[in-house]
Every structure is written in structure tokens, then in C-alpha cells.
Design goal:
Helices cover about 45% and strands about 15% of the residues. By secondary structure, the chain is α/β, with parallel strands linked by helices. The chain folds into two domains: about 140 residues, Response regulator (Rossmann fold), CATH 3.40.50.2300; about 120 residues, Response regulator (Rossmann fold, 3-Layer(aba) Sandwich), CATH 3.40.50. A five-stranded parallel beta sheet has the order 2-1-3-4-5, with helices on both faces. α1 packs across α3, α6 runs parallel beside α7 and α8 crosses α9. The N terminus is likely disordered.
Length: about 260
């Protein structure tokens, strides 16, 4: 994740908490205001390290805010995320930056905290409240997930046109555990390809494993054995696509175009 995204999160949080930031007693030993940051995943999705860098950079550039940060990793697990939020609140956090593990599980906890005056900023994973009153977070900073799939689909279409095939085959490696995010990315890709190639075959294969290069490689190796022709492979993120690339290399499938989404180190 780009540092600017993290910086914007902090700016929004500062704006939403300006009133109490000047009036509330400090909660840490060094007389700084504690801001909790619960991050979806630091192991598989290493770009979230940019969140830590961005927060630290913003704090150093804005000493007048008197913020200090406590970072927690949810490991893509809902219960761990909820425990992280509770622990951050118990530690005295006066605001929470949350990169959720799913689209709704944190909402009840957020409602309770917001009722006590603790603001939340949501990053990356758009929440899906059951009713308007559930949308208690101060703001959301994130991507248009469908648009990411659309852009990948456009790149695929440009390449497929060079093949002069009316019925190309595309594979999209999705991440079912990411819920609506994964669904939006796949559908954006699929619909864009089919709009230009109505006879195309767009295969979705879900990586329900670790969601890294290795799990994707295992999955795609089996798909390649089943599918004699695949023209384009895209996926939920770069880790999934790099894993697919490794699978193709292992099977000497050299006639495939690979299109990544998001980022991977």
C-alpha cells in the first residue's frame, strides 16, 4: 500500500478527532495520544507494511498532533481482528485505524466504541452495513475493487485482440476468503473480457489456501493439467498471479499472458 494512503488515513483521523486531541489527557507514559492500528495481514500481504511506515512518517512530520501508534496484525482472521480492537481500546487508544478482515464482523464492536467517543477510520476493505445506522466509522479510504478488475480486463482485451481468436480462454485466480472484494475484482475482469469477446471462456478458480505464491502455484498447476489452452491469467493480487506464473514455468507453458493486480514484494 502506498505511503500516501496511510498518510491520508491519519489526516482524516486527525480531522475527526481534533476536538478531543486537544482536551483529552494523554494515555501513554510519554504523554502522547495513542492511536490503534489493526492491519488485515502483514505476512501474506506485505504491502501493508506501508501502513506502518506511513503512520510513523506522518507522526514525525506532524509532532503537534502528539500521536503515537500501536500496530496489530489480524492475520486475515476475524476473531484475531476483534481481539486486536478490544486490546487496543483496553490499552487506551483514542482512535482506531482499521483494515478489516472482512466486510462486516467489526461493525458491532465499532458501534460500541463510537458510542463511547472513539472514532474509527476504515482502510482498504469497504464495509457492508446492514442498515444506515451501522455505518458509524468516520470515513473510508480504499480502492474501487471492481475497477481494479476492469483495468486488468482491459489489458487482457488488448492482448487478446492480437491473437485473433474469437473464443480465448482466461483464468482468474480469486481469493474467496476476501469476500466481496474478491467477487468485485473477478466480476470486473470477467465482464470486461466478455464485453469484447462474448465467446470467451473465463474460468474462476478460488485459492482457499494461504493466499500466497505457493498456494496459488499448487492450485494453478492442477488447472493447467486440466486446461490445454489458457491465453491469459489474472488474479486477486500479484501473489496469486506470480504463483500462477511459477506454475506455468514448471509446466513449460510459455504462451500465457499474466496480469497482476495490487502489489507484491
Amino acid at each position: 500500500m502506498k505511503k500516501i494512503g496511510s498518510i491520508m488515513l491519519i489526516i482524516f483521523l486527525l480531522a475527526s478527532t481534533a476536538g478531543w486531541a486537544q482536551k483529552t489527557p494523554a494515555q501513554t507514559k510519554d504523554n502522547k495520544t495513542l492511536i490503534g492500528v489493526s492491519i488485515m495481514e502483514l505476512t501474506a500481504y506485505t504491502w501493508f507494511l506501508g501502513v506502518i511506515d506511513g503512520c510513523k512518517q506522518w507522526a514525525s512530520e506532524h509532532p503537534e498532533a502528539n500521536f503515537t501508534f500501536q500496530f496489530e496484525d489480524s492475520h486475515s482472521d476475524v476473531q484475531t481482528m476483534l481481539n486486536n480492537i478490544e486490546n487496543l481500546l483496553a490499552a487506551g487508544a483514542k482512535g482506531i485505524i482499521l483494515f478489516p478482515a472482512d466486510a462486516s464482523s467489526a461493525i458491532p464492536t465499532m458501534k460500541q466504541a463510537v458510542a463511547k467517543g472513539i472514532p474509527f477510520v476504515i482502510g482498504d476493505y469497504k464495509q457492508q452495513p446492514a442498515k444506515p445506522s451501522d455505518a458509524v466509522w468516520a470515513t473510508f479510504v480504499g480502492h474501487d475493487m471492481r475497477a481494479l478488475g476492469v483495468v486488468a480486463g482491459k489489458i487482457a482485451v488488448d492482448y487478446l485482440k492480437t491473437l485473433n481468436k474469437p473464443n480465448p480462454v482466461c483464468l482468474f485466480v480469486s481469493r474467496p476468503t476476501s469476500g466481496q472484494v474478491s467477487k468485485d475484482r473477478f466480476e470486473g475482469f470477467r465482464d470486461t473480457v466478455l464485453a469484447s469477446f462474448p465467446k470467451a471462456k473465463v474460468i474462476e478458480e478460488g485459492d482457499v489456501g494461504a493466499g500466497n505464491r505457493a498456494s496459488s502455484q499448487d492450485l494453478v498447476e492442477n488447472v493447467l493439467k486440466r486446461e490445454p489452452v489458457i491465453d491469459v491469467i489474472s488474479g486477486h493480487n500479484d501473489a496469486e498471479v506470480v504463483g500462477a506464473y511459477n506454475a506455468a514455468v514448471s509446466q513449460k507453458r510459455t504462451n500465457i499472458k499474466f496480469i497482476g493486480i495490487a502489489g507484491d514484494k
